[in-house]
């Protein structure tokens, strides 16, 4: 909803908002130059009468004296047949030079206020300011939701480089842009008298007594007024003996008899006038030039916003799966719901959609989060959820379970899970979805089916079963889409473990040097590593295969390298390829975020447990322990002489206290053991840390993970604690392969 509001407003008003912002940025320099050029009026220093006297002596046909919001005094006068204006010294009344805003400034002012289109333009400019309010507010709310609240405002923004630019500039400028756009909108509304500007109007009816005029210096009503209060003093017209002085001050408007010097009428400004002046000052910076400059500087970011925003939208639009003839919600008989994070499940949904449509069905395919929409003609639902982490929902299904709770609808349903048997909870989210539907009494069209690693054969078989259930001839042909990859170059490798039959390599990759060349803009914006954190996953597609293999990351992109720890598996296609890779060799890779496997915020202790190559992300977490929280690392290898991975770096981390304690276990030394054994030895200390809110992160093989769970349960149970509970609270998270 917010995103739609932000995108639609941005696309509709981009050019208008850019014009307003750039013209505003140019105008923001004016208050500075005025402030530098003209001496300021000092409060209590000069009275209007005395100053007006000097001016009138020099310019007998003076029309008015205006004090601008920046504090400059400007006199308008007639000189025979021509009119002129000059800046005067507020102390002496002496002329300082002509007051002539350049043609350029006038043009930019008109462009900013009315787009050079008169009243209609003023209204459009007002709408532009309102669009800017919507964009800033919706953008700020989206950013907060993404970062996890206002307190997380300084956290690194995740996403593509374009998204990070957009959000990063937003974070820097949002307050200034909100101020500019809110004040601009208020001023536009005041122009059309939709909100008060509070200014009083002189009552037109009053006339002076006539007769010979007093010299302006002798007008009593002016003598009492401090120049710092002046807004405008309009002189009486020479040809009309009863015409009066009109004096506008910060308090109101008075008319003063030119013959007697007495006040005839006084209209106080309404309460809103101070507010309007304040709004005017905030918007223009007149009277507060540093703020004006700051707002102007922020406004220069708007074209960048527009460009990055348009590109983000375009990429999302292009990436949106297209379903030719996607039936409307009102007419669809079959609803296909897709839960995908990486996008591949959409390809399977497209094949299913096509096949059902060809068989004469009216089909609507939408993300799983669209479960709440009304589908009045729907006869069945086919749900295709992928799984992430410990049975977690992918992005397009994040709200599915919550929305399911509020639904009356019960349709025959089939769930087809997509996952990977390498993960301990294979198709875990599909299981959760299927159980939730069961529990709510949705009739089953087909029993739950799970597809391993996007297998086209398993998918086709499920299609046959579905065809039988529906009485349709379905021929499902889906080819797993190859994820979009980027090339990386091996820049460093350290090999361990060959002597103990556990060849393991720490491999560091960087963007290839030639990725800085090519298109001209690459020189300005060299391709950087995409955003990732330790614990995220890199998918690597080895040559001669279409199937990615996943590895946990030991580095963050800000380290400048993508680092993984790979154990060579007997007969393993990808691990053998990686172990044989020479420096300069390349891989095709892509990133999958793994937000579930990450240290929680705060300073509670971390207990990191791993074995073998599972140390990769655990070292990454330790390396980035900027807050100095207690970290206890338990790790198991075979022989310290051969496969003590990251030995030097861990020693450094212990020395500078990023690591509190390192407990190792080696299995192939006399009297050796496993990591579970170390946990058991430290049971009391672990229990104490868990009671203090510690989070446990485990990474490594399945057998080790099972052993660790058993050991921890044995430690927790006697103390009345429960591992399942810790899992629910995200305080026990495992990344197991
Ligand atoms: C970080 C990550 C975590 C994953 N976790 C699981 C899991 O716990 N269980 C599972 O069965 N599959 C898991 N998978 C595999 C995906 O569910 C599978 O590749 C799926 O086909 C992806 O579909 P999508 O591209 O539409 O998101 C994981 C994949 C990644 C990248």
Automatic annotation (TrEMBL):
Taxonomy, superkingdom: Bacteria
Keyword Protein biosynthesis: no
Pfam families, per the entry: Flavodoxin_1 (PF00258), NAD_binding_1 (PF00175), PepSY_TM (PF03929)
Gene Ontology MF terms in the entry: flavin adenine dinucleotide binding; FMN binding; sulfite reductase (NADPH) activity
PROSITE patterns, per the entry: FAD_FR, FLAVODOXIN_LIKE
Tagged with keyword Membrane: yes
Annotated GO CC locations: cytosol
Alphabetical UniProt keywords: Flavoprotein, FMN, Membrane, Transmembrane, Transmembrane helix
EC number: 1.6.2.4
Domain Flavodoxin-like residue range list: 334-467
Domain FAD-binding FR-type: from-to ranges: 483-600
Transmembrane portions of the chain: 123-147, 168-189, 288-314
Name the record gives this protein: NADPH--hemoprotein reductase
Organism: Phreatobacter aquaticus
């Amino acid at each position: 909803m917010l995103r739609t509001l932000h995108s639609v407003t941005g696309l509709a008003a981009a050019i208008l908002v850019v014009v307003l912002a750039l013209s505003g940025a140019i105008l923001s320099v004016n208050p500075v130059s005025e402030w530098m050029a003209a001496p300021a009026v000092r409060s209590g220093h000069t009275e209007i009468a005395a100053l007006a006297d000097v001016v009138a002596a020099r310019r007998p046909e003076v029309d008015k004296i205006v004090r601008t919001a920046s504090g400059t005094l400007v006199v308008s006068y007639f000189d025979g047949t021509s009119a002129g204006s000059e800046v005067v010294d507020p102390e002496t009344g002496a002329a300082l030079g002509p007051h002539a805003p350049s043609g350029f400034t006038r043009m930019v002012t008109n462009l900013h206020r009315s787009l050079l289109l008169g009243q209609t333009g003023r209204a459009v400019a007002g709408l532009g300011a309102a669009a800017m309010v919507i964009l800033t507010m919706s953008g700020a709310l989206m950013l907060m939701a993404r970062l996890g609240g206002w307190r997380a405002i300084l956290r690194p923004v995740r996403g593509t480089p374009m998204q990070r630019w957009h959000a990063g500039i937003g974070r820097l400028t949002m307050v200034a842009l909100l101020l500019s756009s809110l004040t601009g909108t208020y001023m536009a509304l005041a122009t059309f008298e939709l909100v008060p500007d509070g200014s009083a109007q002189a009552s037109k009816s009053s006339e002076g007594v006539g007769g010979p005029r007093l010299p302006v210096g002798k007008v009593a009503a002016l003598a009492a007024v401090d120049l710092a209060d002046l807004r405008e003093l309009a002189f009486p017209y020479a040809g009309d003996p009863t015409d009066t002085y009109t004096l506008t001050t910060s308090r109101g408007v008075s008319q003063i008899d030119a013959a007697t010097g007495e006040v005839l009428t006084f209209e106080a400004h309404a309460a809103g006038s101070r507010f309007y002046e304040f709004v005017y000052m905030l918007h223009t910076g007149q009277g507060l030039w540093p703020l004006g400059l700051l707002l102007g500087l922020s406004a220069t970011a708007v074209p960048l916003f527009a460009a990055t925003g348009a590109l983000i939208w375009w990429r999302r639009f292009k990436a949106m799966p297209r379903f030719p003839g996607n039936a409307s919600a009102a007419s669809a008989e079959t609803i296909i719901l897709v839960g995908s994070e990486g996008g591949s499940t959409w390809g399977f949904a497209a094949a299913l959609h096509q096949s059902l449509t060809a068989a004469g069905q009216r089909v609507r395919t939408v993300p799983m989060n669209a479960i709440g929409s009304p589908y009045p003609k729907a006869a069945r639902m086919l749900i295709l959820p992928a799984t992430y982490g410990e049975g977690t929902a992918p992005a397009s299904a994040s709200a599915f379970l919550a929305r399911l709770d509020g639904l009356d609808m019960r349709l025959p349903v089939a769930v087809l899970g997509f996952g990977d048997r390498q993960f301990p909870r294979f198709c875990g989210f599909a299981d959760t979805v299927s159980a939730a539907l069961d529990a709510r009494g949705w009739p089953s069209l087909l029993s739950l089916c799970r597809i391993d690693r996007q297998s086209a054969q398993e998918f086709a078989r499920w299609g046959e079963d579905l065809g039988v259930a529906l009485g349709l001839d379905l021929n499902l042909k889906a080819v797993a889409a190859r994820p979009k990859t980027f090339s990386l170059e091996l820049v460093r490798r350290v090999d361990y473990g060959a002597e103990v039959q556990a060849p393991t390599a720490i491999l560091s990759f960087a963007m290839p040097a030639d990725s800085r060349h090519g298109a001209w803009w690459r020189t300005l914006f060299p391709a950087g590593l995409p955003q990732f954190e330790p614990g995220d996953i890199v998918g690597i597609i080895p040559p001669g295969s279409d199937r990615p293999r996943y590895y946990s990351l030991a580095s963050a992109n800000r380290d400048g390298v993508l680092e993984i720890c790979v154990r060579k598996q007997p007969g393993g296609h990808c691990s053998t390829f990686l172990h044989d890779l020479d420096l300069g060799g390349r891989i095709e890779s892509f990133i999958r975020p793994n937000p579930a496997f990450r240290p929680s915020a705060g300073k509670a202790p971390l207990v990191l447990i791993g074995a073998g190559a599972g140390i990769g992300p655990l070292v990454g977490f330790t390396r980035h322990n900027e807050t100095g929280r207690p970290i206890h690392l338990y790790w198991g290898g075979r022989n310290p002489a051969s496969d003590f991975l990251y030995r030097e770096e861990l020693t450094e981390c212990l020395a500078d206290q990023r690591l509190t304690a390192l407990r190792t276990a080696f299995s192939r030394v006399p009297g050796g053991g496993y990591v579970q054994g170390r946990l058991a030895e430290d049971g009391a200390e672990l229990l104490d840390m868990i009671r203090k809110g510690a989070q446990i992160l485990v990474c490594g093989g399945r057998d080790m993970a099972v052993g660790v769970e058993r050991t921890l349960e044995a430690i927790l149970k006697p103390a009345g604690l429960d591992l399942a509970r810790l899992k629910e609270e995200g305080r026990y998270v495992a990344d197991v392969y």
